[in-house]
Design goal:
- This protein is mainly α and about 120 residues long.
- Helices cover about 85% and strands about 0% of the residues.
- Helix 1 packs antiparallel against helix 2 and helix 1 packs antiparallel against helix 4.
- The radius of gyration is 16 Å and the shape is elongated.
């Protein structure tokens, strides 16, 4: 999840620089980063599925995992939007920045919930 956040922030910085300098973001670079972001989301979803199995007897942990999954699913939707945005030859930096911000918001919420979950499980 942290890698997803870092990748998303890098992409947002590209888009902000593009907007500021009127230099287009390279679609090839953007597609590469969005593919990496999508891969990170899939890996996170697999990780969460494994966590659910390991913590099956812990209702509080499962509730936390459900919240995390919801945020990761929301992030996946924004990554899908980003994927659509970078398919063409030109990228709309404003739309991209909004999608990055939305994706990062869900990543940050998922990370916060996951950090709290790890603390609770460690203290049990």
């Amino acid at each position: 999840m942290r890698h997803s956040r870092d990748t998303s922030r890098d992409l947002r910085l590209f888009a902000q620089r593009s907007r500021r300098t009127n230099q287009p973001v390279s679609p090839i670079v953007a597609r590469s980063h969005v593919e990496e972001l999508a891969s990170n989301v899939k890996l996170t979803q697999k990780y969460l599925a494994e966590e659910k199995k390991e913590l099956a007897g812990n209702k509080a942990a499962l509730d936390s995992l459900a919240k995390i999954e919801k945020h990761v699913d929301e992030e996946a939707e924004h990554v899908s939007t980003l994927s659509d945005l970078v398919k063409g030859d030109q990228i709309d930096p404003e739309k991209a920045i909004r999608s990055f911000d939305d994706a990062e918001d869900h990543i940050d919420k998922a990370l916060l919930e996951h950090d709290e979950l790890e603390l609770r499980v460690a203290s049990e």
